[in-house]
Amino acid sequence: MTAALIDGNLISKKLRGEIRERAAKIPSAKGKPPGLAVILVGGNPASQVYVSSKVKACGEVGFHSVLERYPASLSEADLLKQIDTLNNDPTINGILVQLPLPDHIDSKKVLEAIAPEKDVDGFHISNAGALMVGSPEFIPCTPYGCIKMLESIQYPLKGAQAVVVGASNIVGKPMAMLLLMAGATITVCNSKTRNLSRYTKDADIVVVATGRPKMVTGDMIKPGAVVIDVGINRLPDGKLCGDVDFESVKQVASHITPVPGGVGPMTITMLLMNTLEAAER
Length: 281
Known about the structure:
The chain has 281 residues and is an alpha/beta fold. Helices cover 40% and strands 16% of the residues. It is built from 11 helices and 11 strands. The strands form 3 sheets. The chain has a 6-stranded parallel β-sheet with strand order 1-11-8-7-5-6, covered by helices on one side. Strands 3-2-4 form a 3-stranded parallel β-sheet, with helices on both faces. A two-stranded antiparallel sheet has the order 9-10. The longest helix has 18 residues, at 263-280.
């Protein structure tokens, strides 16, 4: 078989249309559109691309957006002070600090400084804890997007065997929690798991988020499985690829996400959704 593509661009377009319609109703009720503040510290090239994409997406759905750029020399104290200012700004519903931060700044301290009701990345410990007990306020954007992609193919999650490869706080752990909430049986692996294929071969759903190019290959996948590739890596020849070997896996899986054009667009779309929900609340 050749796997059907789960097109992140197509799903995002539909969701952004819904977000735009809901956002348009907010000014008449509250006097302002949803507002997102994005903070970028330093000149990381990838981070600059990401924040530009987020600000552009805000404009497309009628949001108010603020992009604050600071040099890498910005002190931790000054960054925390600016976050406090945004916490108290009524025109801002969501605050996002682009990671990674310079080494002299404690990322954990910065993320905890964001007011939980404006933590549209879903990284604050109170939001992570709410997800753990099954009552999330904000779901981390990438796992949220993955769930929406599974919903788009109407995959029956209840009772499914799911393997999440990667255990980060940003993707792997919240992804496992969301699948668990949906009724799936979860195994969480990582890049150091011994005999990884022993687990992935039994899975109906495989979500891979390790940052290792093409580490999951076709011989590691059960025929007919759904494969969600969260990774994005640049090869020496400049081409982009995921953590899944797309060419071999697509011959085995029933559905697969491409890289690029899969999970990436969904991450930004779910950031918009979280910001919208913050404004509506």
